Amino acid sequence: VQLVESGGGLVQPGGSLRLSCAASGFTFSRYGMSWYRQAPGKERELVAHTGGAGGSTRYSDPAKDRFIISRDNAKNTVYLQMNSLKPEDTAVYYCFAAFGLWGQGTQVTVSS
Asked: Is there a contact between 23 and 3 (Cβ–Cβ < 8 Å)?
């Protein structure tokens, strides 16, 4: 049972990144999936959430209008498309399955 994130990296302000989280070992479509992030010296915070069927989504205020969460239940994968990135988006981004499983995280750095 695991979640494996990928797609992080260094990007300039205003740029875009797409994070992926591949799930295995559980029935992916049954569970809501979320992306969280944790910046240095700060608490982990929710970025976006999608329901099991993918129809319902919600976003934190910083993510609204810039980030899009989506999922492909056939591929057991959840995505986070991040646009118009800002330096304050720099953080480790974590995937989370609603029954309590965390991924290992992927670093996103927004800097010129």
From this structure: yes
Q: Is 101 helix (H, G, I), strand (E, B) or coil?
A: strand
Q: Which residues contact 61 (CB under 8 A, 6 or more apart)?
A: none
* Cβ neighbours for 91, distance < 8 A, ≥ 6 positions apart: 37, 38, 39, 42, 107, 108
| Integer Cα distance of 75 and 63 in angstroms | 24
Instruction: Please report the pLDDT score of residue 53 as a whole number.
Output: 76
Structure tokens at 85: 């990135």
Compute the distance between CA of residue 6 and CA of residue 48 in angstroms, rounded to an integer. Answer: 17
Higher pLDDT, 64 or 53: 64
Note the pLDDT tens digit of each residue in 64-89: 999 999 999 999 999 999 999 999 99
> Distance between the two ends of the chain, CA-based, in angstroms?
37
- The tens digit of pLDDT for each residue in 24-34 reads 999 999 999 99
Task: For residue 33, count other CB atoms closer than 10 A to its CB.
Answer: 28
